[in-house]
Write a structure and sequence with these properties.
- Two copies of one chain form a homodimer.
- With about 200 residues, chain A is α/β, with parallel strands linked by helices.
- In chain A, helix 1 packs across helix 2.
- A four-stranded parallel beta sheet of chain A has the order 4-3-5-6.
- Chain A folds into two domains: about 50 residues, RecR Domain 1 (Helicase, Ruva Protein, domain 3); about 100 residues, 3-Layer(aba) Sandwich (Dna Topoisomerase Vi A Subunit, Chain: A, domain 2).
- The relative contact order of chain A is 0.08.
- Chain A is about 45% helix and about 15% strand.
- Chain A starts with a helix and ends in a 5-residue tail after the last helix.
- Chain A is built from eight helices and six strands.
- The model of chain A has no long low-confidence stretch (mean pLDDT about 90).
- Chains A and B meet through helix 1, helix 2, helix 3, strand 2 and helix 5 of A and helix 1, helix 2, helix 3, strand 2 and helix 5 of B.
């Protein structure tokens, strides 16, 4: 019914996370009806990204510059490296403007179930970067899931094992607690008991 | 943080129906991480559609052929024209394989609220097509909303007014009733009472 070009576009759109077959059809029709204002600009944006964006060889962030603008920025603190699972976590942290150190993208988490071992993550480069004398702290900003915490413990062990008498590292993780704006009522027991144990003077 | 190219791609994706800012970020990252298997194929699919797909001058369907493959198919019945609001409704009807006549896409519905009048719809072409001697029936497959039904009544009146002694038209609408697989419990009163009034011998 819709020609093969339209069918193909729908299939490509349906593969995107968050779009099912139905919303892919709607998106395709939206684009076809707005050729000049939506379809061609999206095609151009994709071509630009395809041509110019590459992973940063240092931290794994995506950027047009190599090393990326975060690795190259001289105002950022070389003493702290924040380790994240993936680039979207890096983006989320950057949106907070609460961190001004460097990043390292692991590219995944250890998972026995999915057969992901240490050799599948960008670990050697992290250990190498952590060995630089200037680095004082590694923040493991990994998800508060079993896989995230397993990965954090594994990396902490590897970092400790690589320490030398002249160079010791602080290894930290994100605080657990009540989300800002969150009702206690809706929180799970684990978070609430962590928040209680880590209580702070007001 | 993410470069301007990536930000721009996220904005373009966030405009698609069904994608918010958050899912647009996820979709952008998905594409960037799969340059050869997802990003470039999507860009190519968009370029193909932009270059080749046009609205059919006859019925308003989108296709690479002009007139479209449905208008050109000699096996379809010229005697029945099914009027739909938009191309996705045409696609939905074609998926059922229950209709083998011709289509006519209105491109909208009458709406006093949105200031959409008869002159904003593809009506003249429909009246012209309906006037051909071969056409015997017009099916108004419009939504069961106030605007859909207002539009259906308006078109039915215009079609009746255009009838000549030599050429009369049957004008019909879709049946209302219990959706196939639907529980009575979950149906609204309007649908249920329509289904009861239009009951059929078993």
């Amino acid at each position: 019914m819709a020609g093969p070009e339209i069918e193909h576009l729908m299939q490509m759109l349906a593969r995107l996370p968050g779009l099912g077959p139905r919303s892919a059809r709607r998106a395709a029709l939206y684009l076809i009806k707005r050729r000049e204002s939506a379809l061609e600009p999206l095609a151009a944006a994709l071509a630009q990204v395809a041509e110019r964006v590459r992973p940063c060889p240092q931290c794994g962030n995506f950027d047009t510059a190599s090393p990326c603008s975060l690795c190259a920025d001289p105002r950022r603190d070389d003493g702290v490296i924040c380790v994240v699972e993936d680039v979207d976590d890096l983006w989320a942290l950057e949106r907070t403007r609460a961190f001004s150190g460097r990043y390292h993208v692991l590219g995944g988490l250890l998972s026995a179930l999915d057969g992901i071992g240490p050799e599948d993550l960008h670990l050697p480069r992290l250990l190498e970067r952590a060995g630089q004398p200037v680095v004082q702290e590694i923040i493991l900003a990994l998800p508060a899931t079993i896989e995230g915490q397993t990965t954090a413990h594994y990396i902490a062990d590897r970092l400790k094992a690589a320490e030398t008498p002249d160079h010791s590292l602080r290894v930290s993780g994100l605080a657990h607690g009540v989300p800002v704006g969150g009702e206690l009522d809706y929180l799970d027991d684990g978070t609430l008991s962590q928040a209680l144990r880590a209580r702070r003077p007001v």
